[in-house]
What we know:
Elements: H1 2-15, H2 45-60, H3 64-93, H4 95-103, H5 118-134
Helix pairs in contact: 1-2, 2-3, 3-4
Amino acid sequence: xxxxxxxxKIAMITAAHxxxxxxxxxxxxxxxxxxxxxxxxxxxxxxxxxxxxxxxTQLLLCNPVCAVGYxxxxxxxxxxxxxxxxxxxxxxxxxxxxxxxxNVGVGIPGIKGYEIPPEYSAYLDRINLQRVEED
Length: 135
């Protein structure tokens, strides 16, 4: 429980101005993709921290029924939210986010995030290849 709470707080501090409690559909001029610290272990450490914290609270209270209920409700909420958020992040950061997504997991079992359409993935790979050839 405390580990989840600590992870969430560290994630919010690490992301600094890039963190918001609302999913952003427009990229702010100073918005950067954070990939260091806890974000090098989880693409969504704040969500993962909250997920484990919420389950931990019910285990601490010796309430296994609610622990299962919290786990199911939080999992469904974060599965949908992460998919929506990653769609925007992919639009904001393109290839940079695709590569980050390929190398770092979500941190919540069974949640994979936004499924990048194969044709868009190929497009991003072509852009990267062109950049490499130009250098």
